[in-house]
Every structure is written in structure tokens, then in C-alpha cells.
Amino acid sequence: MSDSRLKISNNDGVTLVEFIDRNILDEANIQAISEEITAVIDQADTPKILISFSNVDHLSSAALGALITINNKIREKQGQLHLANIDPQIYEVFVITRLNKLFNIHDTAEEAHAAFAG
Fold first, then answer.
1. 13 three-class SS
2. Band of pLDDT at residue 118, cut at 50, 70 and 90
3. Which of 63, 48, 56, 55 is nearest to 9 (CA)?
4. Would you state the pLDDT for residue 51?
5. Can you list the alpha helix ranges (DSSP code H) found in the chain?
């Protein structure tokens, strides 16, 4: 997976997903990212996924759409998704689109990690 756009690691049963790209705007890239995260979800019985946006400066609306799809897939398997380290400008988009109500968003990955139940 040398062309991976993600850094995926496992910590106490929680899968941490980090982005390599600062800008997640390109349709093909978003598709590849979605597929990679979906593969992680498919492998888990009850996926616990923490997505960190610490490197990310820009997200397109297509990226937000992909996040919603990922969230739905995780919920279908009774899993949990938490987001962390979202840049204030990107967070603004979550607020405008009311996605801050849909997603569990935390300031830091540590806080998000602590928020996973059992």
C-alpha cells in the first residue's frame, strides 16, 4: 500500500487514521481514502475509529460526504467514530453544515481516544 494517503495505526483496539495530505480536495484522493477506511471498517467486528485531522488544512464537501458515509457504515456495525484535531477553519464548515452535531469531535486525539466506550 505504498500509494496510501493515510497513516493507520492501532492503539488499544482503536484504529487511528491520520492523513498524509494537507488538502483533501481531490475527488480521486477522497475515493481512495474512503476505500481504505471502509476496508478497516469491514475487517472489524465493532469498528472503533479515530480520525485525526492534525495535518489537514482544507477539506472539500466531497470529503465531508465521504465522512458521513463512513460514519453510517460504522454505525451499521455498532461501532464508534470520533474525530480530533480539526483546524478551526475546517471546524467552521462542520458547524455551518451542522455536522458538528452528527460527529463526535474532540480537540485532541488523546481526548478522543479516552471517549471510546468499552
1. coil
2. low
3. 48
4. 97
5. 27-43, 61-76, 88-96, 99-102, 109-115
Q: How many residues does the chain have?
A: 118
Count of Cβ atoms closer than 10 Å to residue 76 Cβ: 10
Structural domain boundaries in the chain:
6-115
Q: Kind and range of the H or E element at 75? A: helix 61-76
Tens of pLDDT along 2-22? 578 899 999 889 999 999 988
How far is it, in rounded angstroms, from Cα 55 to Cα 62? 18
CB 96 within 8 A of CB 62: no
Q: pLDDT: is 19 or 25 the higher one?
A: 19
Which three three-digit cell numbers place residue 38?
Answer: 471502509
CATH 3.30.1360.120 holds for 6-115: no
On whether the CB atoms of residues 80 and 58 are closer than 8 A, the answer is: no
Q: Cell numbers at residue 31, please?
A: 475515493
